[in-house]
Amino acid sequence: MSDLLTNPLPGYLQPTQLNPDPQTSDLLHIDTPEQVSIRFPVAGLGSRFLAIIADTFAQFIVYLVLGLVFFLLAASAPKTTAGIFTHTGEKWLIAGVILINFLIYWGYFALFEAFWNGQTPGKRLCKIRVIQQSGRQITFFESMTRNLIRVIDMLPGFYLVGVISMLSTRRHQRLGDLAASTIVIHERPSEEPLWGGNGPRTITAGAFTPPPPQPAFTLLDESPLPADAVARLTPEDLAVIERFFSRILDMDLDTRARIAARLAAQMSEKMQMPPESAAVAKDKPERFLEAITRQMRSHGS
Asked: Considering only 49-63, 86-100, 124-138, 140-154, which range has the smallest mean pLDDT?
């Protein structure tokens, strides 16, 4: 068992480590705190261009609506007898124009991305979202940082600086993304089962949705794993099991089955399980290991 701790299994990735394989350079690989490996397909130039077109159109509609409201307010602003704005009215007019332009130009992207799970209407339409490089959802700070630098990415026009930056980086990051340590990824459900035998868990970019609660693993007598047997295991044993589950997607089926059987036999022996229970562990090793993990976690081990 100790060799599994000292010699990591093939393909293990540290949290937030990027996959260096050039054949999968458009994938961001992250190990979550739940020890689940998640793969995020990075959004390219095409999908982001379509999203910015949709957002620009949405901003244009907002400009029209707010412009009409502002025109109505300006009509009722204080004026001289000659119909000219007073000094106070002129200051309010200028302040209003600046505020509206700021809210639409910067606030549109920053507020939507910060409070709408990393998406603007255009990004949601194109099924992409912004996340931190660690895989977590972006906060208001990251959102404001990446969007304040948008004005530089737009220079000298049509996002030329941003396009050059995206084409020059492996993760298609514009300057705002580099400054805020963010990445734009596609939102796709995973089609791979992560915990063999219990069905797939849905993974979307920046969000993890667990499956419906599964019934606890039972032995031949339909009872949970004996508490006294589980208590014989240590946190080190739990770490070994969780490391195995975090890497099963990177193993071929034969290697996965061999290691699962070996771990189940070791844990069963250490737990001093009765022969009939040990037979169940041998027959379904991954379910047996998953039951150990669930039971130790539920008791705060």
From this structure: 86-100
Q: Do 94 and 182 sit in the same domain of this protein?
A: yes
Q: Is residue 34 part of a domain?
A: no
Task: Give the Cα-Cα-Cα angle 104, 106, 111 (nearest 5 degrees).
Answer: 90
- Domain range spanning residue 88? 45-186
Rounded CA gap, 288 and 225, in Å? 9
- The pLDDT of 220-243, averaged and rounded, is 77
Tens-digit pLDDT profile for residues 1-38: 444 444 444 333 333 444 444 344 577 766 655 455 56
Which amino acid, one-letter code, is at 168?
Answer: S
Cβ atoms 260, 290 nearer than 8 A: no
Q: DSSP state, 211?
A: P
Burial track 52-61 (b if 16+ CB lie within 10 A, e otherwise)? bebbeebbee
- pTM value is 0.54
In this structure, are residues 93 and 85 in contact, taking their beta carbons and an 8 Å threshold? Answer: yes
Q: In this structure, are 243 and 156 located in the same domain? A: no
* Helix (H/G/I), strand (E/B), else coil: 18: coil
Residues in a beta bridge with 137: 131
